[in-house]
Amino acid sequence: xxxxxxxxxxxxxxxxxxxxxxxxxxxxxxxxxxxxxxxxxxxxxxxxxxxxxxxxxxxxxxxxxxxxxxxxxxxxxxxxxxxxxxxxxxxxxxxxxxxxxxxxxxxxxxxxxxxxxxxxxxxxxxxxxxxxxxxxxxxxxxxxxxxxxxxxxxxxxxxxxxxxxxxxxxxxxxxxx
Length: 177
Description:
Blueprint: H1 6-20, H2 27-34, H3 38-41, H4 48-60, H5 71-83, H6 88-97, H7 103-115, H8 122-145, H9 155-169
């Protein structure tokens, strides 16, 4: 049995997220996999939303190791973190809305705006644009996986739509991402 720590719980949660999406982040499922009772998890995470917030912080952690001078590049890096797991945008959006975590996403955009001499206030607008576009992209992917017919817009078109919107937001004079 693995020693029950915050890190071991997050490791299992991240693996389950990759495999099952947000529905795989049940306290019972994680506890079963760790060989403990669900109540044991509450010593490390007071509730499921705090567990999700911890997962979101892990998901956004790669942003902390990067410095962006271009807000479009920063936003596209956030997109890459979000699309790396099913339901990434939904989880990060709710975590940010509740003020529970995932600050790295906003912080890297604020810094990139400053570096590009853009108003830092645009960081929130850019983040909402990224979260919304990726959430739609992930919903479409889930529908396709379930065999539901959807419109013809491809994931690649969604990525280009996001890039075009970000370039318009920041004035269109940015490095290629």
